[in-house]
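cron nightly-structures :: item 1 of 1
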Amino acid sequence: SFEHLFGNKRADRFLAEHVFEHISYSDALTALKNCYNYLEKGGAVRIAVPDGLHPNPEYINMVKPGGYGEGAHDHKLLYDYKKLAKVFQEAGFKVNLLEYYDEEGTFHFNDWDSKDGHVIRSKRYDKRFNEPLGYSSLIVDGIKE
């Protein structure tokens, strides 16, 4: 448990890259509430998940729950930026969208620092982003104010 690991200590950062798509929404909310409780003020949780608004249907078929991509057989959710922001907000966080597709298929990139949580499957670090499939992640920071 967090209490066993941290006691009275507080973290300044948590990172979960391609983890939250493997748990239910209610478990994600519980996990984020735990993170919130064990973060210092100004600390952040960075989450990267497959992007449910990616414009390439082949990408969606690969990463959706039950998709054919590696690890997708046990995906529980396919997040878009609104759904991921909602679970962060329900846990008490201020949301900062870093990388995501919108409903029109436009990719948005807000500069972020790897020292705050290095995400391998990102525009900056994943060479597959520029390949025909255009592999990307939805990346969001939740800030404890």
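cron nightly-structures :: done
The domain at 2-143 is CATH 3.40.50.150 (Rossmann fold).
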